[in-house]
Amino acid sequence: YRLLLCSDGLSGFCSDAEIQEVLQEDVSDTETAQKLIDAALEKGGRDNISVAIATVSHNTEE
Asked: Which residue in 11, 15, 17, 50 has the fewest CB atoms around it within 10 Å?
């Protein structure tokens, strides 16, 4: 799964559903972050759009 930390520059311009849709795409964290920033910019965001994404995987093999 992915963990997203973002400023209101993203969450104030993109809905939770829009963000979730992008997070579910099978692309790198870097590309996902850029897509989210671009989406916020397209919706009028102009300043302080901060995004950090971490992909977390659980390895059940020991």
From this structure: 17
Q: Which pair of tokens denotes residue 35?
A: 């897509």
62 located within any domain: no
- Of the candidates 5, 19, 15, 9, the residue with the CA atom closest to the CA atom of residue 44: 9
Residue 14 covered by a domain: yes
Residue identified by tokens 């809905």 is 15
Share above pLDDT 70 across residues of the chain, in percent, rounded to a whole number: 98
Position 29 in a domain: yes
Domain count, the chain: 1
For residues 58 and 48, which has the higher predicted lDDT (pLDDT)? 48
27 CB-near residues (< 8 Å, 6+ apart):
35
62 has pLDDT over 70: no
